Amino acid sequence: MLDMNTLLGIVALASLSSHVISGQQCECPASMCPDGWVTFRGSCYYVSDNVSVDWTEATHHCTAHHAELITIQNADEDKFIRSLLERYYRTGGQHPGQEFWIGANDLMIEGVWEWYTDNSSLEYSGWYPGQPGSEGDEDCAVIASRSDVFNGWHDAPCAAKHHPICEISPRQTIDQIIG
Fold first, then answer.
1. Which of 74, 117, 155, 158 is 20 to 30 A removed from 57 (C-alpha atoms)?
2. 41, 90 Cβ separation under 8 angstroms
């Protein structure tokens, strides 16, 4: 017998497959995002504040949710994510110094930042001034809260424990989501 979450997931995927032909890009309107996710310009986002994991575990966590660690493509998406984090985490001065994993790293070549999903270079970046730093072991990227705002991307040690931000993007196909 299926539990309720599995049944709801099957219903959501069946609904999604009726709107998208297999192999085509997935547009995720608010009605198509899983519960607890938010939508912006065709993508669904989930801030996993119930887990604190290293960067590699963050990628696996998102995969387990049929998503990827977020890849931020432009200033509008960056602003949306920062404002989302502000709404979630700045109430009453909560979580100063909080950091959230994004999908950028320079693991292959020091100083050459890429998105892990396709090894493409960052066409847009939201680095905080002076970032990424020159620390040798800071090879993974976070959106960080400094003082009272989420003010930009920082490089961080990949082994550090932070919360992942997962994304189901229009780049993903229905095959990838159910795959």
1. 74
2. no
Assess contact for 69 and 54: CB atoms under 8 A. Answer: no
151: nearest Cα among 82, 81, 48? 82
Strands (E), the chain: 38-40, 43-47, 68-69, 99-105, 114-115, 140-146, 149-156, 163-168
Integer Cα distance of 145 and 151 in angstroms:
6
Contact 69/167 with Cβ under 8 angstroms? yes
Assigned CATH topology for domain 27-171 = Mannose-Binding Protein A; Chain A (3.10.100)
pLDDT reported for residue 81:
95
- Residues 178/155, Cβ–Cβ less than 8 Å: no
Average model confidence (pLDDT) across the chain: 79
Q: What digits encode the pLDDT tens for the residues 96-151?
A: 568 999 999 999 999 999 999 999 999 999 999 999 987 668 999 999 886 667 78
- pLDDT tens, position by position, 17-43: 333 323 334 455 556 788 899 999 999
Strands (E), 38-130: 38-40, 43-47, 68-69, 99-105, 114-115
User: Vertex 86, ends 75 and 119: CA angle to 5°?
Assistant: 40
* 140 vs 171: CA distance, rounded Å: 22
